[in-house]
User: What shape does this take?
Amino acid sequence: MSFDVQQAVREVLPTVTQALDAAAVTGDEAVREYARAVITDLVREHVDSRALAGRDAPTLQEERRLAEAVYNEIFALGRLQPFVDDPEVENIDVNGCDQVWITYRDGHKALGPPIADSDEELVGNVRRWAAYQGQTARDFSIARPRLHLSVGHRTRIAALMGVTPRPCLSIRRHGLLEADLDDLMVNGTVDKGLRAFLAAAVRAHKDIVITGGMGDGKTTFARALAAEIDPDERIATVEKEYELFLHLQTDRHRDVLAMEAREGNTEGLGAITMRQLIEDALRFNARRIIVGEVRGDELVPMLEAMNTGGSGSICTMHADSADQVFARMLILAGSGGLSIAPDTLFRTIGMAVDFVVHLRHELRHDIDGLVNRRYVAEVNEVLPPGDGLEPAVNHVYVPGPDGRAVPNTIPQCMEELVVAGFDPDLFAPRGWDRGYA
Assistant: This one.
């Protein structure tokens, strides 16, 4: 009988996790080498015990595969890891252990192999990942059936149990971790003129809100804008789970304070909210604050930061259009039980925000096959309220015939952008200019 690596993994895992728990081993990089040594020793003991019991023994190569598989079950993503390592994979959706859908970067989907032998095993795997992955251990249980977790530098996991018929996971891979505006010009997200306009807006310390739907590329776009910031300028990033990873790009950003919100325990104790972290960022002398995604009442301190010490800050937000962003902000501002009058909020927005950049993701079939593209559709300049309640808006870039943003109205701050290096000739309407020549 041939050696069954997966069966051996199931046999070894309880002993390994017990040993690592006793040693208080976490997912910290500094202790992973120790964990590898523990796993290697325990796998060797397992192989020896199999031989003494007269069971089939693995070859040296199979023993190494077993040790690596055990390590991956704890510190990587087990049978999912090959897909996570595939640069062509964008998303993985799991509806139970044997319903695994892989979405690739070109837009097509395929059914993948089972990632566990049972739903119970899948839940156990997720619990291990929650305990050993990320900056802090997180609970995944009937009491805490929702999990959000960053794994490594390219992967984000959302998991549910107990509120769905079967345990479910959604895994998103970050493709362009070191993207800049030139990269986005090459892939068609911006054209030559818009690339120069946005770069000047960042250099001029304009406060920018990036909007769009889920999967429209907001986080990648925020990274690309941040690439225009002076390398020595102090930046604070605030996220629910790490996704920006500017603190890892030490050649591009040399002074970064990266902060991640923390869940409380089952009684809610020990929680650190994004609102608190944004308030802390200014105390730590951050020149700019970049919020991965504004989802709730952290909006108000974010606007206050933009309006005071955080000039040139950037945040992302879900919205269906650039014009919808003010109504969206009104909802978010009240989501934490805060009472803020709409006119007060809109005055704050008008003074704090300079531009709203709206992204779209187009995924459709046409005569040439599958179309999968992300692009900037609109750029609005935001101004203090005039006669109306909401902030005044200049529609600086509007959707062209194919939906991509084209110049429309010269912004009031054009002189500042020119001082920051923008060539106003690039604003002349000429259609989408990919700028490859």
In short: Residues 29-52 form the longest helix (24 residues). The longest strand covers residues 369-383. Residues 86 and 104 are 9 Å apart (CA to CA). The chain has a mean pLDDT of 87.
